[in-house]
DNA sequence: CCAGACGTTGTT
DNA sequence: GTCTGG
DNA sequence: CCAGACGTTGTT
DNA sequence: GTCTGG
């Protein structure tokens, strides 16, 4: 799965990686949690590609309460085309969530150990996403998004059994612009990333607190020793 | 017909 | 909005 | 995802 | 245990 992400870019990097006409003004973030604003690249039909901040956690347009979004920050790629909450967004409103990396937690002996995942060379990754539009009773609009997940690859499996869908750079255009009646041809993209697409290392549990933010959160810490009973 | 769900993860 | 269950 | 609350009345 | 907030 994917429940925390980071996005730190040098000027020009986002535009270059995702083919944006203008570089969006984004502050570096090292701990973006569900319900928070997250960057999303979209390409509306006939318009320029753009990057906006959307609320992380998709709110279906028929929802009566936008707080449902807190549970909709991931969508299973295996079922996204059928699920009532996601299928319209999958057909018509796909996006790419640019990230520098993401965190996954390994559960061991009742403890939850955060690990960071990033690309070798620290380039940006493009996560497969969906977005949706929801209107408050007063007419204000909430745009929100969700990150697709796939089974873990070999690297990820040491930590967790699900992972975000990472799009190859060459498939960004196809992911963003495939017509609704052809989305069944996108399934080749909804797979675990190759093992060499990511590096990983353990990080401090300081990241557990969603209010924490800063470059120190992605610094490696020593791996805990394997579980053992210290009798003295 | 109306009522109620609509989601993922992890744990048992 | 649309589907499932009763 | 994890952390933290989980309640009401009345007063500031 | 379950929900809300970040």
Describe, in short, the structure shown.
With 232 residues, the protein is mostly beta strands. The protein contains four helices and 13 strands.
Task: Explain how this protein is built.
This protein is mostly beta strands. It has one domain (5-218): Alpha-Beta Complex (hypothetical protein yedk fold). It contains four helices and 13 strands. The strands form two sheets. Strands 3, 4, 5, 6, 9, 10, 11 and 12 form an eight-stranded mixed β-sheet that branches. The longest helix has 6 residues, at 13-18. The relative contact order is 0.19. The structure holds four DNA strands.
Rg, Cα atoms, Å? 18 Å
CATH level-two architecture = Alpha-Beta Complex
Q: Helical amount among residues, as a percent range? A: under 10%
Specify the CATH class.
Answer: Alpha Beta
Looking at this protein, list some descriptive labels:
232 residues; 9% helix; eight-stranded mixed β-sheet; disordered C terminus; 33% strand; hypothetical protein yedk fold; DNA-binding; five-stranded antiparallel β-sheet; mainly beta
Task: Outline the fold blueprint.
Blueprint lengths: L3 E4 L5 H6 L10 E4 L4 E6 L7 E7 L17 E3 L10 H6 L1 E6 L1 E8 L2 E8 L6 E11 L5 E11 L2 H4 L4 E3 L1 E2 L4 H6 L21 E4 L30
Parallel strand pairs: 4-10, 5-10
Antiparallel strand pairs: 1-2, 1-7, 3-4, 6-9, 7-8, 8-13, 9-10, 9-12, 10-11
The protein binds four DNA strands through β5 and β7.
